[in-house]
Write a structure and sequence with these properties.
By secondary structure, the chain is α/β, with parallel strands linked by helices. It has 15 helices and 13 strands. The strands form two sheets. It has an eight-stranded mixed sheet, with helices on both faces. α6 packs across α15. The longest helix has 25 residues. It is globular and about 55 Å long. The two termini are 24 Å apart. The relative contact order is 0.11. The model has no long low-confidence stretch (mean pLDDT 95). The structure holds adenosine-5'-diphosphate (ADP). The site of adenosine-5'-diphosphate has 13 residues, from α10 and α12.
Length: 391
């Protein structure tokens, strides 16, 4: 069958999915990943019905970096029968100021994306490595880049800028926002589930976390900004921070750029505050008061951000929970929903406990929803659009 390969490459994991084209629409066939790159590498993949296709561990030196993970994945994909590769869709974190939608990749686009590496030095190089490799080995297979920033590019100028000298804006220092593929998918689902809800906040709460304000399905504001550090506290990132703290760390503590970067990306957030774990499940299961503090802080900041975005929308019709925490933790959903009571939100405890799609009571002025996100399906759809109607 004709197939689209979707790739999401990070520094410690490489995720891939194969979508078959069934009656002209992408239908997931295989979902796989190489995890623990350089530490405890493991290649796993399963068919759409959950049947394991491969589950194999490797020594750290066998898969010590992303290129090695790509080679292993490529080799394994080569053992699969029955798929005719028609296109590859890539998740690319940064599309910079210019890309407000997915783009068919050619040498000029790749140059432009490489130039944007300065804006996302921790992620962009990993996203581009598989594109370069595929260009070399499958030059005839179209590749499409789908950006985490693109969905937010329609923000008004007053929302897109920082109050910094304007030359920095021109140079690319802007409030880009991230998780855009997730929000785009949820926006489409909300059109089916609650078409009358014009003012919607979506809370993408995973190990990375942000919120987005949707007005008539379009993003008008996000809690993330220039980088994916801003906004809500996350597994290992602090979220919104007084920039004076960074100056203090450098000036008074003598920390290097690398040390501050590690502190902000890897040692902060739920992990830093609790001193226990970056995983919400561990904190919910713990009776350590520091775990409780990390949870209280997370819920508090979610409430504050929801208030900010409700102000941007001029009111609120619906609030959506998605991603790992949002989809799976009834306890966290209930606590955040309580913070929305002033907007008229009333949670239906039984519906919330079972993870129903709608978890608000009929009397609630704000519809509360749980909608599993699907960034890979969004990428597959975007990619298909290019091969169905090449530009
Ligand atoms: P990402 O894609 O950003 O890596 P996910 O959206 O998969 O993250 O979310 C992962 C996080 O979801 C985990 O770190 C964990 O904290 C949280 N999570 C998953 N299941 C549960 C659960 N049942 N209860 C609470 N948190 C959960």
């Amino acid at each position: 069958m004709d197939a689209i390969l979707v790739i999401n490459a990070g520094s410690s994991s490489l995720k891939f999915q194969i979508f078959g084209l069934v009656d002209g629409a992408p239908v997931r066939q295989v979902r796989g990943q190489v995890e623990g790159i350089g530490t405890r590498p493991r290649l796993g993949a399963a068919a759409a019905d959950g049947t394991a296709l491969v589950d194999q561990g490797y020594a750290p030196e066998e898969i010590r970096d992303l290129p090695a993970a790509l080679a292993t994945t490529r080799h394994w994909l080569g053992t699969l029968d029955g798929f005719e590769l028609r296109a590859i869709g890539h998740r690319v974190v940064h599309g910079g100021p210019d890309f407000s939608g997915p783009v068919l990749i050619d040498a000029a686009v790749l140059d432009r994306l490489a130039y944007l590496q300065d804006l996302a030095p921790l992620h962009q190089p990993n996203n581009l490595a598989p594109i370069r490799l595929a260009m070399e080995i499958n030059p005839d297979v179209p590749q499409v880049a789908c950006f985490d920033t693109a969905f937010h590019r329609g923000h008004a100028m007053h929302s897109d800028c920082y109050a910094l000298p304007r030359a920095l804006y021109e140079e690319g220092v802007r409030r880009y926002g991230f998780h855009g593929l997730s929000y785009e998918y949820i926006s489409e689902r909300m059109r089916e589930i609650a078409p009358a809800a014009g003012r919607v906040i979506v809370a993408h709460l995973g190990s990375g976390a942000s919120m987005c304000a949707l007005h008539d399905g379009r993003s008008i504001e996000s809690t993330m900004g220039f980088t994916a550090l801003d906004g809500l506290p996350m597994g290992t990132r602090p979220g919104q921070l007084d920039p004076g703290i960074v100056l203090y760390l450098i000036d008074q503590r003598g920390m290097s750029v690398k040390e501050v970067t590690d502190l902000l990306y890897k040692e902060s957030g739920l992990k830093g505050l609790s001193g226990i774990s970056n995983d919400m499940r561990d904190l919910l299961a713990s009776d350590d008061p520091h775990a409780g503090l990390a949870l209280d802080h997370f819920v508090h900041r979610c409430g504050l951000s929801a208030g900010m975005l409700a102000a941007a929308l001029g009111g609120l019709d619906a609030f959506v929970f998605t991603a790992g925490v949002g989809e799976n933790s009834a306890a966290i959903r209930a606590r955040i929903a309580e913070r929305l009571a002033w907007l008229g939100a009333k949670v239906d405890a039984a519906a919330n406990d079972t993870g129903a799609t709608c978890i608000s009571t009929p009397a609630s002025r704000v519809g509360l929803y749980v909608i599993p996100t699907d960034e890979e399906l969004m990428i597959a759809r975007h990619t298909l659009a290019f091969i169905a109607a090449p530009t």
